[in-house]
């Protein structure tokens, strides 16, 4: 289930806030400039769906968000259940990094946890199917898809050339609770 946990960035053992209440979650994230919305993700996708199939199924939603927030480019990040190189894929987003522009992610299936490091706090947001989250320009963050990953996310970019990340070189991500999957108890 979607939830938010807020930590001080030097103390991963004692959260300041943990909530599954969407109104509280949206409000807390909005105070830091993060957009969170719950969308309908009602199109079932075949296991072998490609990016074009995903974008075609959600074309109306994609066009609406592009028009509203000026996103120029979209792509699809998809990790099907049971993928062979899960550990390598997981490692790709596990280090803290930034993007030079505001981006957004819409989870059309599956789940994963984003960690946004803002003003000496870490906002851990477990996203599930139907969740839309923005990552503001320059915000330090990382993403954990878990040990048994499964998700499809439409990614929205303001840059015409899509996903580009700048590593911060910090080792903060390793100190925070990872994402263990949708059946794990929330933290
Ligand atoms: C859930 S989309 C894949 C992860 C990603 O694009 C990103 O930037 C993580 O920080
Ligand atoms: Fe990122
Ligand atoms: Ni699947």
From TrEMBL:
Binding site for Ni(2+): 97, 99, 103, 141
Residues involved in Fe(2+) binding: 97, 99, 103, 141
UniProt site positions, description: May play a role in transmitting local conformational changes: 102
Its EC number(s): 1.13.11.54, 1.13.11.53
Catalytic activity: 1,2-dihydroxy-5-(methylsulfanyl)pent-1-en-3-one + O2 = 4-methylsulfanyl-2-oxobutanoate + formate + 2 H(+); 1,2-dihydroxy-5-(methylsulfanyl)pent-1-en-3-one + O2 = 3-(methylsulfanyl)propanoate + CO + formate + 2 H(+)
The protein's enzyme class: oxidoreductase
Pfam family, one: ARD
Pathway assigned to this chain's UniProt record: Amino-acid biosynthesis; L-methionine biosynthesis via salvage pathway; L-methionine from S-methyl-5-thio-alpha-D-ribose 1-phosphate: step 5/6
Superkingdom field: Bacteria
Gene3D superfamilies listed in its UniProt record: Jelly Rolls
Subunit structure as annotated in this protein's UniProt entry: Monomer.
Protein's job: Catalyzes 2 different reactions between oxygene and the acireductone 1,2-dihydroxy-3-keto-5-methylthiopentene (DHK-MTPene) depending upon the metal bound in the active site. Fe-containing acireductone dioxygenase (Fe-ARD) produces formate and 2-keto-4-methylthiobutyrate (KMTB), the alpha-ketoacid precursor of methionine in the methionine recycle pathway. Ni-containing acireductone dioxygenase (Ni-ARD) produces methylthiopropionate, carbon monoxide and formate, and does not lie on the methionine recycle pathway.
Protein known as: Acireductone dioxygenase
């Amino acid at each position: 289930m979607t939830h938010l946990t807020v930590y001080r960035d030097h103390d991963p053992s004692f959260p300041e806030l943990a909530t599954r209440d969407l109104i509280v979650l949206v409000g807390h994230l909005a105070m830091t400039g993060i957009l969170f919305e719950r969308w309908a993700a009602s199109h079932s996708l075949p296991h072998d769906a490609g990016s074009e199939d995903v974008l075609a199924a959600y074309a109306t939603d994609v066009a609406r968000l592009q028009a509203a927030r000026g996103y120029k480019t979209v792509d699809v990040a998809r990790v099907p259940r049971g993928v062979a190189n899960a550990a390598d894929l997981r490692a790709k987003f596990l280090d803290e990094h930034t993007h030079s522009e505001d981006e957004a992610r819409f989870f059309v299936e599956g789940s994963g946890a984003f960690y946004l490091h803002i003003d000496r706090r870490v906002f851990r947001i477990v996203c599930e199917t139907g969740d839309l989250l923005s990552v503001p320009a320059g915000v330090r963050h990382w993403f954990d898809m878990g040990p048994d990953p499964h998700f499809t996310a439409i990614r929205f970019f303001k840059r015409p050339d899509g996903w580009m990340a700048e590593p911060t070189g910090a080792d903060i991500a390793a100190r925070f609770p990872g994402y263990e999957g949708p059946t794990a108890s929330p933290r």
